[in-house]
Design brief:
Blueprint: H1 11-25, E1 31-35, E2 41-48, H2 54-64, H3 70-78, E3 82-86, E4 94-96, H4 99-104, E5 114-120, E6 125-129, H5 130-134, E7 142-145
Antiparallel strand pairs: 1-2, 2-3, 3-4, 4-5, 5-6, 6-7
């Protein structure tokens, strides 16, 4: 039986296994060496926040009227935000927002049912479109909002 046809795989398990795989590659300072597109190998730091509680997730849903996709909710139950691919000397990277930060970063320019979950070092944003998710599109509800 192939991996994709297996019925017993749960979304939370995939999220947890993926994060554990990444964390197993980090050194004691949360750093892993990665190769960039020009061939240079550089350190990148990963920092993970403590988990969100079910009551924090419930509060977010009540205050916003939004749903959280299952895989993103699984991530929040493991880590209520994170900083990924941050260069120890030059900064940058990806800031995955905590629930409180997501409440703070709600903007009128976003369509109804959408909220920001991450900021990239170049000012771009990652957005969740709960309308797509509710309509049954469980795999492509994320979109990238360019800052330009």
């Amino acid at each position: 039986m192939s991996f994709h046809k297996e019925k017993n795989i749960k979304v939370g398990n995939i999220v947890e296994k993926s994060l554990n795989g990444l964390k197993s590659r980090l050194d004691n300072n949360g750093i892993v060496l990665t190769q960039n597109q020009e061939g240079y190998v550089e350190p990148n730091k990963f920092t993970f926040n403590p988990p969100a509680s079910l009551s924090q997730i419930k509060r977010f849903k009540e205050e916003t009227g939004l749903i959280l996709p299952a895989d993103f909710q699984s991530f929040l139950l493991l880590h209520n935000g994170a900083q990924l691919f941050v260069h120890p000397y030059y900064g940058g990277g990806v800031d995955l927002l905590s629930l409180d930060q997501m409440l703070d970063y709600r903007f009128d320019y976003l369509p109804d049912g959408c909220f920001i979950i991450a900021y990239l070092f170049d000012g771009c944003q990652i957005i969740v479109d709960t309308n797509k998710y509710k309509a049954g599109n469980k795999t492509s509800y994320l979109w990238y909002l360019d800052s330009l």
